[in-house]
Amino acid sequence: MILETRTSQFVKMASYIHTVGVAENSYDTIPERLRIWAEKYPDKTAVVSYDAEYKRHQITLKEMHDGAVKFAKALMKLGIKKGDKIAFCVPNCVEWMSYDIGIMMTGAYSMRLMFGLADIKSVIEGCSAVVFGSKSIWDSFLSIAQINNNGKVSCEACPDLRFAIDVSNSHRPANALSAAKLMAEVSDDDEVEFPYIDPEDIAAINQTSGTTGVPKRICHSHFNFINLPDKFVSGTSISTFDVLFSSRPMGYIGGYPLLLLTKGAKHVTGDVEMLNDTKNFDFVVNLWQQEKCTIVGVAPQDLKRLGNRGFRVKTVLSGGDMLTHDAIEYSFKIADEFGIIYGATEALIISSRFFTPENMSQHRQGMLGRPLEGTEIKIVDEEKRVVDIGKTGYLYFRSKWTTKTFLDGTSCLEKGWYSTSDIGYLTKDGDIIMIGRSTDFIKKCTVKLSIKLIEDYVGRQPNVDAVVVVPIPDEEQTTFTGVPSDTISENIRVEEKIKKN
């Protein structure tokens, strides 16, 4: 780890850090990596998924690879070719990776969609086919397109669309092609020459949330997906024999089975709505024990629900929010260590850090960890000048893993750096400390109040399950809206604490 210093009239340390890479990279593609694992451990369970009715499903590495090959052959029979874009939006299921990697095998790009955040016309623009798996998604699609005989699509708004494929069967619209039927019609004897795929080729396209407008299309190569997770697990004991649980959508960066590809580790997931319903939290914890999970992803708001459960896991992972000291301490009731992950769609993983009861004294409020190998971080002021160590500013990063351009070819960088909306500072030890996001402050006169700090304070109250602070431009009034608890007196006490502080 190198901290750069600048010499001027006054010798000061600048808020810049570069974590030098030492681990070797692999020059593989995702389909090739899956083939290797399938040949080495054909009968090893690859993915376990629990559906909305709590039913368990599983798939082995060989079954996953065979399914990917069949789906790829079926797509190529339909005329899908290298460079095509396939809109892919399928709920978590054991076949998910077979569909995703099958698309890659054809040389087409798997464009993973986030619906509900933008007009559907804008998110499927330029796609040759859609592969969907839920009623809500199909309803959105059918509002702009018509599916004719043999799955052929007519869509004035998206003239490139040719086919519509359904993976659910129960929600399949009339005339949509069935993925299961297409794959069943593929014979092992069918000779199909798959196109050459280079590790530098686009593997998948992820969309940003679209909070600043139409979602941007972020491209990542096979090289990125295969190698970056290795930097994250470098120096840890994570191996093929670990079992990871994630309640995130598999199409999101945070829910994609990266450790399955990198280490061959089993991935446990399920219906996202069911797994994230607070009333199902005990079911989820029991699931960890049943599946012998060693690494579990837990949402920040659920950390305080962890407790002594009669079994332990190796690691709890969390991110996507500024984590308090107390929140991390909760994890030690069930885990030996806690891992903070800070990432972005544009860079996959930016920084991380692992804590145990022995080194928790080093934790600071808002700590995001230290940059992964090959990653540079700098903190700048409003004039884009690097500030001194410990000074607050805007966080920028760059690395070989950072997307350089969007799918349309426009640059997503500023002089080679990616600009975030995160505000924080860098410590002398190389830790990134987040204060908040540029949109997460309430300005009152000359003072900026952190929304996150207010939420953390209120959220620590024992009678508060969850809290959201919304800025309202009023110099005199404070508004408190609460969902009633069991007793009115508890709500009154919470409201009094808010007014007092």
From TrEMBL:
Residues 36-406 form the AMP-dependent synthetase/ligase domain. Gene3D superfamilies: N-terminal domain of ligase-like. Signal peptide: none annotated. It comes from the Eukaryota. Pfam families: AMP-binding. This is Acyl-CoA synthetase. The lineage of its organism: Eukaryota, Metazoa, Spiralia, Lophotrochozoa, Mollusca.
